[in-house]
Amino acid sequence: MKIQTLVRLALQAIRKNKMRATLTMLGIIIGVAAVIVMVAIGSGARARISAQINNLGTNMIVITPGSANTAGVSQGAQAFPTLSIADVDKIRAEAQYVTAVSPVVVSRSQVVAAQANWRTLINGVDTDYQTIRDWQTDDGVFFGADDVRAQHTVAVIGHTVAQRLFGTNEPVGQNIQIAQASFKIVGVLTPKGQTAAGTDSDDVIFVPYTTAATRLNGKNRIPQIVASAGSQQDIPAAQDEIRGLVRESHRLAANDEDDFTVRNQTDLAQAAESSTQVMTLLLAAIASISLLVGGIGIMNIMLVSVTERTREIGIRLAIGARGSDVLTQFLVESIVMGVLGGAIGLALGVVGAKTLGHFTGWETVISPIVMLIAIGFSGAVGVFFGYYPARKAAALNPIQALRYE
Amino acid sequence: MGDIVIETRQITKTYASGSNSVHALRGIDLTVRSGEFIAVMGTSGSGKSTLMNVLGCLDTPTSGSYLLDGVHVESLDRNQLAAIRNQKIGFVFQGFNLLARTSAVENVQLPLLYDRSGKKRDTHALAIAALESVGLGARVDHEPSELSGGQQQRVAIARALVTKPAIILADEPTGNLDTQTSIEVMALFQSLNDQGITIVLVTHEHDVAVYAKRIVEVRDGSIRRDELVKDRRNAAADLEQEERNAA
User: Fold this and answer.
1) Cβ-based contacts of B79 with chain A (< 8 Å)
2) In this predicted complex, what is the ipTM?
3) Residue of chain B minimizing CA distance to A321
4) pTM for the whole thing?
5) If you compute the radius of gyration of chain A from its CA atoms, what whole number of angstroms results?
6) CA-CA distance, B212 to B201, in Å (whole number)?
7) Which of A12, A314, A321 faces B114 most closely, judged by CB atoms?
8) Are A349 and A34 in contact (CB under 8 A)?
């Protein structure tokens, strides 16, 4: 028999018992819908994390002071402000794998504008910082090298700060007060959204680090240096290079331990990603149990169906159907039931994931591959759980089957 | 007389029933020639149903040889028997045995769907033609539940005819029908037989058997009587008579 004929027969048989078929398929429907929703949420979380990692900057390396070992007691990072502008200059001058480097002088301060005031993070940075962290400006420009050299009181503000201080007004060209100094706003940054840690990346003000050192902190020490490697592959080489240069700059002896830490952000990213991957797998495993239960439901109803249709099987065998014809017929029926259930479950799962995403704000990602796997898997469930009943049907004796009441 | 369609030599069939064995058939010699119309008679337990199953290739004999349309079928396997049933035999059953909720034309098409000879045929057209030949050309899309018993049996006969088999085996085809309808069905069989179709009919009713040309009586697994019908009745004439009586 042709496959179209078999599928048509199967659909006819299912239509003859709509209620029963629907209830049977419900197991598969719920299973597939659950798998789709779980995987959608898991992939969404992964996609969000990798987007945040990209947000951090391109091939970024972070150097922080500390990890100093004083008399056997390891201090945490930033315990001692051991980094200085000299380190930055040395890296900029000598490192070959590093394309950009900038100190970061962090302070938190109240900022006052004409209409409003707001407490926010003030980062003193170099012009390279814009490249390293991949900041774009919506309005105006990032400050330039001249501003850094001449310690100009200029500021680039984040989207959140702009809204807090100026609402809908144009901030560029306005003045703000930061710790008794007046800064002229030269640019407003394009929003980046949340950081991986869940804080607002746009709640920030950037000023030249030279200005920050004299006007805001009054210190020469630098709590953090960020740098950018030329490419992803260069990151390890750049890290080694930076480590060597800073050790040189700090005049550390060969057996001295580093008094600073060099990290790259992709390490963090990978850790975060693998933990969500484990979660996705776990969720998918739980969801597949309901698929298993759905499969058992199919098997159960197919066994009932074979018994009920013994006479039909007898007729088919009598007029020349082979055992394999009957086997195929029942197998196709359970496959159709599985795939149909899978398709309905897929539709429900997609709608469910979107709805859940809409109400919780979670990002959900449904890839076509996951859809194909879901449908394929439900078909496989149909084959696996339909085979035994189908074989039972095929093995019937035509005489007894015809006599069956 | 035409060619030999069925030739059995000393067919026996023994069933194991617990520790006893039941001898359902004890050496049947039967020859059916093309164009014959045979009524196999016998009471319940006589072995006529077993004979029918063996002749219909639904069952294989314990011993003996069975030549059907030139093929030795006693040694065939399940799949080969299925092919023989499909191509050489047309079954008509007492309980009609049509697929429920399936239109007449689809029921009639069914044997053609299981044909593995690979012939390219318009199964739908063949099924319609078969239904027309049994006088149901106007009811092709009706389901069995929408048809009377006589019409259902006609659909079953059309299904038996559609593969152009060597022989039609009818097992108590009138058992579920009233007298009038029974005669109608027998009239159909007689007209098919007149067109050269070989028919073997199993019945326990003498009234039905007299429409055949030859009666074979089975008792205790053996053939007790094998003779031509002396006063063969014409079903079509009987129907006309009935109509006249009713008027």
Assistant:
1) 322-324
2) 0.93
3) B114
4) 0.71
5) 33
6) 8
7) A321
8) yes
